[in-house]
Amino acid sequence: MIQDQGFFSKNVLLEGKSAVVTGSSRGIGRAIALELARQGCDVLVNYSRNQSAATEVQQEIIQQGRKSIIFQADVGNLSHHQPLIEAAIDAFGKVDLLVNNAGITIISDVLAESEQDYDTVMNVNLKGPHFLTQRCANYMIEEKIKGCIIYTLSISDTLASDNRAAYCMSKAGLEMGMKVYAGRLIENGIKVNGVEVGVTNTDLARVRIPDYIEASEKGYITMFRPGEPEDVANAVIAGIKIYDTGVMIPCTGGVMTPLLNLRNMTSLNSNQTE
């Protein structure tokens, strides 16, 4: 008898799998939910406030021939976690995939950041995903499901922004959480990976795109173009299918490539002699 290798098999197929994607009514989460459906998954579309947007995503998934439900839950509220997982189980019979995507940011000078703003960001971006992963992982272990858990992370876990301190700290903590769970769950055949997201054309990051384009044109960073949500969705699929765990799938368009492009700066000619 061939042992079930789950998401560690040589040929990972998503047909017939079921997924929970947090924060999937718009932006990156929406693109992930739709791509998972295209790959054959039934998908729970989670939203916090925008029910109409979530319903639109649900309808697009159903049009692809997959099952889908919408479910309102605040990931930062731990009491919402069990009903969220149970809703997916009731609808699809099981949960094979969890994508921790929900996230927020609050712009504030680190010297003026309030405790309330800090706690709000940390609850949604770090505490919530940590304990939702714990609950989902324990469910998978109990049901002997060799599942997969993916985190959408950020270049901000490495590149500090002093006006988004809580966001950067939450993403750095979440990356370590991803690695901790990967190490703990590999014995149960559960894969855990992250996606390192660069500047992407979403409501959360769109305002920063001109700054990145200018920096790229001046050669301070390497970036072919700003990312789109669909780029991140493709990276999520790679994180699901790759034969590895506890790793970051890059999706930054080159921003994290350590290259100082002097050719785009002030004209220099190193061949000149006096």
Keywords:
274 residues; alpha/beta; Rossmann fold; 14% strand
How would you describe this structure to a colleague?
40% of the residues lie in helices and 14% in strands. It has 274 residues and is of the alpha/beta class. The protein has a single domain (15-264), classed as Rossmann fold. The longest helix has 28 residues, at 115-142. The model has no long low-confidence stretch (mean pLDDT 92).
Q: In total, how many beta strands?
A: 7
Largest sheet: 7 strands, parallel
Q: Report the helical percentage.
A: 25-40%
Radius of gyration: 20 Å
Structural class: alpha/beta
The whole-number mean of residue pLDDT values reads 92
| Separation of the first and last Cα atoms | 77 Å
How many structural domains? 1
Q: What share of residues are in beta strands?
A: 5-15%
CATH superfamily: NAD(P)-binding Rossmann-like Domain
Annotated CATH topology:
Rossmann fold
Question: What are the low-pLDDT stretches, counting only 5+ consecutive residues below 50?
Answer: none
CATH class: Alpha Beta
Write down the secondary-structure element order: EHEHEHEHEHEHHE
Q: How are the strands of the largest sheet arranged?
A: 3-2-1-4-5-6-7
- Principal-axis shape equals globular
Count of helical regions: 7
**Judging by the overall fold, what is the CATH architecture?**
3-Layer(aba) Sandwich
